[in-house]
Amino acid sequence: MSDILLRIENLRISFGKDDRRVAAVNGVSLEVGSGEVVGLVGESGSGKSLTCRSVIRLLPPGGEMTANRVLFEGVDVQSLDRDALRAHRAHNVGMIFQDPFSCLDPTKRIGEQIAETLRVNVGLDREAAKVQALSLLEDVGISSPERRYLAYPHELSGGMRQRVMIAIAVATKPKLLIADEATTALDVTTQAQILDLIVRLRREIGMSVLLVSHDFGVIAQVCDRVAVMYGGYVVEFGPVADICNRPQHPYTRALLDSIPTIESAGQRIRRDGIPGQPPSLGEIEQGCPFVNRCSYASDACRTLELSMREVGPGHTSACPVTIGSGS
Amino acid sequence: MLNYLARRVGSSVIQLLGLALLSFTLIHLVPGNPVRTMLGGRASPQQVHQVSEALGLTRPLINQFLGFLGHLLTGNFGQSFTFSQGIGSLISQRLLPSVMLILFGTLVALLIGVPLAVVGALRSDRPIDHGIRIFTTVSFAMPTFWSGLVLALIFALKLNWLPVSGYTPGFVGIVRSLTLPAIALGLSLLAVIVRTLRSSVRHVLSLEYVEAAQARGFSTPRILFKHVMRNAIMPTATVLAVNVGFLIGGTVVLEQVFQIPGLGTLLFQAVQQRDYPLVETLAVLSGAVVVLLNLSTDIMQGIVDPRVRLGGKSV
Ligand SMILES: Nc1ncnc2c1ncn2[C@@H]1O[C@H](COP(=O)(O)OP(=O)(O)O)[C@@H](O)[C@H]1O
Ligand SMILES: [Mg+2]
Domain A4-107+152-317: which CATH class? Predict the structure, then answer.
């Protein structure tokens, strides 16, 4: 964790026409050390995916990003020209998305899709690409790869397809793997297997991982550090154990409280979650975005200037209130 | 899959039977008598009766229709009234120019239409997209005979680059004689190709696997040609197959304008002469082409898109 691989400073992403632009990501700062697994957690709509996409500058149409810096190995991603950006996407960052089905070309055999990545991005010839693709299929835990090589996406289960996506993402041995809700669409058992796979590949390839989830349980299992996002802001950032044991932001605490617990009957029971709705885009002009759902809120929260405050070693929070430990 | 194919083939046969009945009825309903047209105004009633009897026109209509079906089924198509020739050999003589005109016209439409559709999809709702839409709408609105005449006026009469009309055999001759009518035909087909392809390319571009390919650092041309086109082409192929009937109609007019000795001119003459069996056979055969093309695009769909292939085994 000595070197910093990725450092995002004051990232803003906005949508809409000139005078009606609203920010979906609002001054996010974040860092990922080399070899580190950093989690990004928060309810849906908090800006996790957009933050991930800024790393490869792949925003949805209409989205505009500004940042003081988005440094990847010391180079600002914002300054890359078209070819350099393509090379950055091809070699530095591998990305897996939530829905492994819609991310594969439905008309091409999955083996060919892996081989295509190897031919185009690594420069292997047809033969070598096929051999390498087969061994990648094996690496990601797909049995009888020769047969699966010829399968079309719709012939595979969700877990299998996600393994294929992972094979494609790590085909170029990237320095950073971004997994955006990569396990959300899968059942619990498959979810655990895919997480194990990601962790194993990280070790083997020596890459860093930016792992997005709205499930703190998943984050707590595999991450070194975690950034908690809410309403386009990072509200708390720090070592995962620290944050789990001593959450400093009321939102983090609420999120931790809503982790599913296992009852004696073996049933998964989700507590009611956090009461209320996250703010909609452009709703917050000033103050803390969590104020309407926060049990610690005071009038001062509506006008306060959001800034990260050191609350422990390497642990920062955007809330000026100090909460006692434990939950 | 086999079951599905059998049903499709069955319905195609029924469509063709219906078409045979329709064309038979229509040509018999059109005023005018083939024998009088053939013999001229001065023929006596006895002569007319004699010839009518020889041609089988005195039989009950139902027998005539069954005779026509019999000819279709055996594939010898019978004799033409006006050309003292078998219909089969007549058609095979006239087939090449028409087929070449349709292929050439489609090629022109694709050569112009595919790039326009892709540009329109990539720059949708920008000025260039609107410009393309206006151009294709205008080209669609122009009647083929009119655009044919304008083209002939400019490129044949004014610039002298190509022949005004007529048809010369041989590869160079065919290309030179068919260029202008093929452009006219292609222009009439352009709008439907551009509209269909643009909207399916736009749709595919919005899908997540395109984004995933971008995230992999693939170039835009690679994404377009290796991933998007393959997934976007099928609706356009279907529309093309449906429009073959429209193209055949276009060739009838254009062959007249450019005096090309193809099936279109043959049909025109046959209708003028009330050459019943020839008109009927041409109608059914061109219908068969349309029906067969539609059937084959359905089958092609299964080849291009593995999800359509029914009964695919799970791996
Ligand atoms: N294409 C888009 N157009 C307009 N707004 C968008 C678009 N994509 C995302 N947003 C806005 O940005 C917010 C954050 O999106 P996202 O990063 O996808 O959230 P998350 O991944 O945390 O669920 C969304 O709530 C939405 O309001
Ligand atoms: Mg998301």
Answer: alpha beta
Q: Residue B204 in contact with residue B210, Cβ under 8 Å?
A: yes
Measured CA to CA, the distance from residue A71 to residue A65 in angstroms comes to: 14
Q: Give helix A110-117 / helix A126-139 axis angle, nearest 10°.
A: 110
What superfamily does domain B95-272 belong to in CATH? MetI-like (1.10.3720.10)
CB-CB: which of A106, A120, A150 is closest to B222? A120
Cβ atoms A202, A166 nearer than 8 A? no
- Residue B165, classed as helix, strand or coil, is coil
Output the CA A240–ligand 2 centroid distance in Å.
21
- Exposure string (b/e) for B185-205, b if CB count within 10 Å is 16 or more? bbbbbbbbbbbbbbbbbbebb
| Cβ neighbours of A156 in B, within 8 Å | 315
Is B223 in contact with B210 (CB distance < 8 Å)? yes
Q: How many angstroms separate the CA atoms of A33 and A191, rounded?
A: 25
- Specify the amino acid at residue A10: N
**pTM recorded for the entire structure:** 0.80
User: pLDDT for A107-162, tens place per residue?
Assistant: 899 999 999 999 999 999 999 999 999 999 999 999 999 999 999 999 999 899 99
Each residue of B275-298: pLDDT tens digit?
888 888 998 898 888 888 888 887
Copy the structure tokens of residue A209. 């991982």
What's the one-letter identity of residue B132?
A: I
Domain boundaries, chain A: 4-107+152-317
Strands A233-239 and A225-230: antiparallel
Q: What φ, ψ does residue B54 adopt, rounded to 5°?
A: -60, -35
CA torsion through residues B111, B113, B119, B122, sign: negative
From the CA of A65, which ligand is nearest?
1
Assign 3-class secondary structure to A271-311. Answer: CCCCCCCCCCCCCCCCCCCCHHHCCCCCHHHHCCCCCCEEE
Place of tokens 């024998």: B35
Structure tokens at A205: 């390839």
CA distances from B289 to B13, B123, B244, B270 (A): 12, 37, 8, 20
CA B261 vs CA A82, B17, B268, B271, B285: distances in Å: 55, 28, 11, 15, 18
Name all residues whose Cβ lies below 6 A of ligand 1.
A 15, 24, 42, 44-50, 60, 62-63, 281
